[in-house]
Amino acid sequence: MPDAQQANRRVVVFGLGGTIAMTSSDTGGVVPALSAEQLVAAVPGLADTGITVDVVDFRRKPGASLTFDDLTELADAITTRLADSDVDGAVVTQGTDTIEETAYLLDLLHQGPQPLVVTGAMRNPTLAGADGPANVLAAIQVAASPELRGQGCLVVLADEIHAARRVRKTHSTSGATFQSLNGGPLGAVLEGRPRLHNRLADRTTVPAGPRMPGKRVGLATISLGDDGTMMAAADRLDGLVVAAFGVGHVPADLVPLLAKIADRIPVVLASRTGSGSTLRSTYAFPGSERDLLDHGLIGAGFLDPLKSRILLHTLLTADTDRATIAAAFDAAGGHAHPSTWPWSAPTVSQEP
Questions:
Q1: What is the pLDDT confidence band of residue 7, given thresholds at 50, 70 and 90?
Q2: pLDDT at 236
Q3: Which alpha helices (H) appear in the chain, and where do they start and end?
């Protein structure tokens, strides 16, 4: 019997390709070949949910080949479909390689209250125990749930529900690869129904409007004995994210170079550790977080380097000035109250 909360709900599924849509090729290995319709048709139990599913075969690419243009076009297409009052949520199926980045980009661009859910698979359909059908079913159930309204873009795999701004891919092959190290998952799908352990208290979105194409944002990971050679291309960038040691530290010899780059373009200071926050004033030695912030770098707070790059790219394409970029990172990264986000954010209900 259909769940009362799911019956008569409508969800749109957008297919982008990825492992979840791969089949064997003539030359060996697997490639994206299945359409979004074929993916949905292969999901056991979907018809029993009472959810009406519309399908859009948007792209057929490996996750590693998706581009910013693909995702911004997708965000526009989702916005158009969700403007229909009969649509209760949307699902995106794609390769897991880039989910932690694409989901956060979609979260920044998704203004509506309907759940937007990204999912994929770690085991392709030719393997025993392929997880794609179960992940698609869970994602559709989450997208149809009124309890998830106002929570923005979510990532659902292995029956866990993650906030896009927190989730990371932490293992190259494990089915439990997606983890939210800062805050944990929002909930899980249990017996076909989403159950929430906690809810997001706020959202940060960038308003729709003209976008500046062709922006380049680099990511430089600092390593032991780093002399800055890998940042030689900085003069061709519009922004840079530095994945620094610990709470935001670099070798002292790199400070003049980073200060020079920060004079020209926004440079964001993130932690390469993958969880926890950069600091602002604990350490004071040359190359410390306090020293770098004094030289014009922008702290990422709890945003990891990959999320920081997505946010910086989105802000630059929105033609945002440096002061607004700094304010946005303070709010999104947890260094300032969410109310300081430079734009009006969608309302987030704390009650299901």
A1: low
A2: 96
A3: 36-41, 68-82, 99-109, 132-143, 255-264, 289-294, 305-317, 322-332
Q: Which two tokens stand for residue 243?
A: 């994945």
Token reading at 188: 């899980």
Other Cβ atoms closer than 10 A to 153: 28
Name the pairing type of β-strands 187-190 and 160-163: antiparallel
Q: Say which residues have a Cβ less than 8 Å from residue 111's Cβ, sequence separation at least 6.
A: 79, 205, 207, 208, 346
Catalytic residue among 19, 119, 205, 320: 19
Write down the residue that tokens 């410390």 correspond to.
Answer: 288
Strands 168-169, 178-179: parallel, antiparallel or unpaired by DSSP? antiparallel
Tens of pLDDT, residues 30-40: 888 888 899 99
**Is the full-model pTM beyond 0.90?**
yes
User: Catalytic annotation on 273?
Assistant: no
DSSP secondary structure of 205-270: -PPP----TT--EEEEE--TT--SGGGGGGGG-SEEEEEEBTTTB--GGGHHHHHHHHHHS-EEEE
Cα separation, 123 vs 22, whole angstroms: 10
Q: Do the beta carbons of residue 219 and residue 305 sit within 8 Å?
A: yes
Name 178's bridge partners. 169
* Strand 160-163 with 89-93, pairing: unpaired
57 backbone φψ class: left, alpha, beta (φ>0; ψ -120 to 50) = beta
Backbone angles phi, psi at 245, to 5 degrees: -65, 150
Domains and CATH numbers, the chain: 10-196 (3.40.50.1170), 217-340 (3.40.50.40)
